[in-house]
Specification:
Helices cover 50% and strands 14% of the residues. The protein is an alpha/beta fold. The protein has an eight-stranded mixed beta sheet with strand order 1-2-4-3-5-6-7-8, sandwiched between helices. It is globular and about 80 Å long.
Length: 325
């Protein structure tokens, strides 16, 4: 029996050694690939605007025959707003001129050490929109940007013509979400993920292996676009600015508790059926933020990333909604 146990122990040690070696190889590969990728996509798209604080923000403009203007805000951790929302933006080409906004720490925009408060986020966005000459526009936000959009609408109510939310965060979501999805636990989860998956290169490998499923949801991307998007998805994840943002999320939500959209701003919320199944109050906590009678909440089939996995329904819902008639 002791000989058998020794053999089993040796096998286990060999397996562990192989695993450690594999992770080491992946980690070293990740370091070199990140450097290579960063130089590849450094000027892939868009235009830069330098904020009064000195950081550069990247944005892309999609023209349209329409006089209406919309700005798209991403969810947390989006590696490239330009690529992720490309099919979505082009699907709204007849309805809006679109500004694709990459906040600090996202896509090709600079990182920052300044606090990721909702007020700072809104001031940065407002500075860009003012520099572009827009004083009346619709905000389209996904996930965490729902918090910023709510803050923005109350800071600049005369400028926000409407808000469209794609399964967005809300101020009271910690009260209704599962414990694992609460903002303070999300920060802990992302911190572990950065250490165990991203820094080790495991995240890069899994992203490379599964990337085709994402690309299939964005048929408008060229082969070169796909290559750039993959490079950014593998490299531009959970940087220091994004980690500071998720750490600040609890404070940003608490600051907005009890705040609703101003009465002059119609709101269209599209919520994920998957999240509605997991969180029974999901539709209600969104509808409670609407004060304009033209506002509504629409449940669409699919996961959190509705603009990727149920794009036709998202576009149909937005195009059919006309709060000004």
């Amino acid at each position: 029996m002791s000989k058998i146990l020794k053999k089993i122990g040796k096998v286990i040690l060999v397996i562990l050694a192989i695993l450690i070696l594999a992770v080491a190889v992946l980690a070293i590969r990740n370091v070199f690939k990140c450097k290579e990728d960063s130089s590849t996509y450094s000027n892939a798209y868009g235009t830069y605007y330098t904020l009064s604080t000195g950081e550069r923000i990247n944005y892309t403009f999609y023209d349209s025959p329409s006089d209406e203007v919309a700005v798209i805000l991403p969810g947390h951790g989006c590696s490239s707003v330009h690529y992720e929302f490309d099919a979505f933006a082009k699907g709204l080409a007849d309805k809006y001129k679109i500004v694709m906004y990459e906040p600090l720490g996202y896509g090709l925009s600079d990182s920052t050490t300044r606090e990721r408060s909702s007020e700072n986020y809104c001031k940065e966005l407002h500075e860009l929109m003012s520099s572009l000459g827009y004083d009346r526009y619709t905000i389209i936000g996904h996930s965490i940007s729902g918090l910023y959009s709510l803050k923005y609408a109350n800071m600049y109510p005369e400028e926000v013509k409407a808000f469209i939310g794609i399964d967005t965060s809300v101020p009271c979501q910690d009260d209704v979400c599962p414990v694992s999805a609460r903002s303070d636990n999300m920060y802990k989860t992302f911190k572990r993920m950065k250490t165990l998956l991203i820094n080790t290169g495991i995240y890069r490998l899994t992203t490379e292996l599964s990337f085709n499923s994402t690309i299939e949801c964005i048929p408008t991307l060229s082969a070169d676009d796909q290559k750039m998007f993959l490079a950014m998805s593998c490299t531009n994840q959970l940087n220091a600015t994004q980690m500071n943002e998720i750490r600040k999320m609890t404070d940003n939500m608490n600051e907005l508790r009890g705040v609703k959209f101003p009465e002059n701003i119609p709101v269209l919320y599209m919520v994920s059926s998957d999240n509605c199944s997991m969180i029974p109050e999901w539709e209600n906590v969104h509808s409670e933020l609407i004060t304009n009678p033209k506002g509504k909440v629409v449940k669409l089939n699919g996961p959190h990333y509705l603009h990727l996995f149920n794009l036709p329904s998202v576009l149909d819902t937005i195009n059919e909604w006309n709060p000004y008639m």
